[in-house]
Amino acid sequence: MEMYSGHINKLIEELAALPGIGNKSAQRLAFHMIHMPKEKVNRLAKVMMEARENVRYCQECYTLTDRDICPVCSNQKRNHNLIMVVENSRDLAAYEKTGKFEGVYHVLHGAISPMLGIGPGDIKLKELVARLEGDVEEVIIATNSSLEGETTAMYISKLIKPVGVKVTRIASGVPVGGDLEYIDEVTLLRALEGRVEI
Amino acid sequence: MEMYSGHINKLIEELAALPGIGNKSAQRLAFHMIHMPKEKVNRLAKVMMEARENVRYCQECYTLTDRDICPVCSNQKRNHNLIMVVENSRDLAAYEKTGKFEGVYHVLHGAISPMLGIGPGDIKLKELVARLEGDVEEVIIATNSSLEGETTAMYISKLIKPVGVKVTRIASGVPVGGDLEYIDEVTLLRALEGRVEI
Predict the structure, then answer these.
(1) Which pLDDT tens digit goes with each residue over B151-195?
(2) B102 within 8 A of B82, measured Cβ to Cβ
(3) Contacts of A48 in chain B (CB under 8 A)
(4) CA B53 to centroid of chain Cα atoms
(5) How many structural domains comprise chain B?
(6) CATH number for the domain harbouring residue B86
(7) pTM to 2 decimal places
(8) Which domain holds residue B163?
């Protein structure tokens, strides 16, 4: 769009490349930023860069964190023999918000998806298997109830059972096709309580 | 959300403060940024700061531009005696995209809104009046057809008519309550052609 300035065009282009932001939203955001106080724009830019620079994987559960070991994993009051497997850190946050899960997590950072070309080697699965060398009693699979989530759950179940660890799946209280992070806490808890061995 | 890192929380907070970005979208964007290559995050941050730093108002029409005088105003082939008044630079871009308007623009950066406490002094109105000291033949008011846009149109009409300049309003081909930037080019052109003196 020649009628804007080069700087605004570049900004619109960068913003439109973010997920869920179309061209119109990118325009709106860009013009909003141009009108924001300069300090606010610089702060947002700094926070973005700092987050990208300093956030890393927890060495135990692989969630995103500022520290080597995340607050959940470094909490000795949690049950470290009970591991809930989730697809991403947002799903971890969703269960953590219920305040009722006493165990720890394992974040896969994805789900198996033949369609997207994501195989077992592309998510944190061997890292999960490595954790089972300890005294783990139960692995609760809390991947989404989507096709990919179910596929991943089945794969993990087959992978882990030979090790002799109990494997459960959160109950189908979670609506089929639903994305875990958008589900209310009551449903999340019901799904946790109703988990069955698979 | 304690379960995330402080850096991610701060980023989510900053993103959620942007218009049209709710808490869930902010989370999604933040996690996306964490997984982006570092150079890409830094480039987005840099583009944001540079845009805010370098973009200014055109000294003639007050649109946002990288230069002292914007490309439209510095184009001597345009009819500088025909001024289209728009609410913001996105609306200017919408008309400019039709490629059929030969005049120049005046960007108000807002509309009169008693509800939001935006008065005539808060938008670029005296700057518009100042421009009429030249040989301006016609002022086309192309504010939105919202309550605020209509109010602003009436106000400008009353303000300018005593000066002896012809004042027109784009036709009501634009759907009532509609936002100019989302309207298709054909409708925008029909509205321009059907403009009537007010």
Answers:
(1) 999 999 999 988 889 998 887 666 666 677 777 777 777 677 766
(2) yes
(3) 11, 14, 33, 41, 44-45
(4) 19
(5) 1
(6) 3.40.1360.10
(7) 0.69
(8) 76-171
